[in-house]
Amino acid sequence: MRSQRLIAGATALFVGLALSGCATTTPTAVANHEAKLEYHADTGAELLGDSLVEGLAKVENFSATAYTHGKASTGATLSTQHETSVVGASYVTKESTAEPGTSIDEVHIAGSGYTYYLFGSAYTTVVSTPWARLPMGDLDRANDPQRTCILGTVIYMCNLVKAWQLSKESNGEELPEKLEVSADGSKHFTSAVTFDSLEEAGLYTLGDDLRSQLSDDELGTLLPLHVWVGTDGIVQKIEVNGTMDAASLDVEVQFGFEITGTPSADDLPDDPASLAPQYVTNVTADQASAFWDAIGNARTG
């Protein structure tokens, strides 16, 4: 999958440079005078199951942001952000990166059999035109909700949910879970994910050399997870945000997804199908896998 490959590629450099130690953190729920704190064994499993994606798949129009931020005491940093606007079956995702020329924007117009990508200057060795098109039609979210995870922002939510599920499998009842329910029915769920679950879920890549230096306990470090769900049952925000504090190194990491509004057709770009052929590279289905591998290599240098 294109989105997951590039999420991992974007974080590989920072993780490889910065991470050399860790310490545990304990998630806690935020107190609220208008809220009721609840807990039972299946809280997370119920909240972070398929219903989270299925609910979002039913929302016809929404805009969202997703982000990755990292900072190490060595000075190494990482910052990547995606903004998606979904209007029916049409969508656009715009990417912002700290490295000039490495952004990739994505556009799909309802009814088209193609999805278009606008590449920064870092990819000219792979694609000689500003745009490329690949054969991918409408996501058909209503009939296949999991395809919502293909969207460049929603994949962060899906991968964070997967990371929690993996952490639950490995930690069982020792994984903290707290649910705060407000008077209006909105929810705030607090738990944790292990550091290595984030890699297994596709949010970053840890090199073999670095992995060999870390113990199982270090790889199992818990990072706080927060999930906010609206009164309509639709996820509003999900975030992992924590610090891994080692004797000689501090590393702050943050992965998140958040609903930001309701766009209209006016928020969509012009249909890239109208672009002159000399500005668009056509990538066939047979070429797609090798194409994205090459893009990923160009991205990470």
For the largest sheet, list the strands in their spatial order: 1-8-9-10-11-12-2-3-4-5-6-7-13
Biggest sheet character: 13 strands, mixed
Helix content: 25-40%
Order of helices and strands: HEHHEEEEEEHEEHHHEEEEH
SS summary, helix count: 8
Mean pLDDT across the residues is 85
CA radius of gyration: 20 Å
What's the SSE blueprint?
Blueprint: H1 2-18, E1 35-38, H2 43-47, H3 50-57, E2 61-72, E3 77-87, E4 90-97, E5 104-108, E6 114-119, E7 131-135, H4 154-171, E8 178-182, E9 187-194, H5 195-200, H6 208-211, H7 216-219, E10 222-229, E11 235-245, E12 250-261, E13 280-282, H8 285-300
Parallel strand pairs: 7-13
Antiparallel strand pairs: 1-8, 2-3, 2-12, 3-4, 4-5, 5-6, 6-7, 8-9, 9-10, 10-11, 11-12
Helix pairs in contact: 1-8
List key phrases describing it.
single chain; 301 residues; alpha+beta; 13-stranded mixed β-sheet; 8 helices; 13 strands; globular
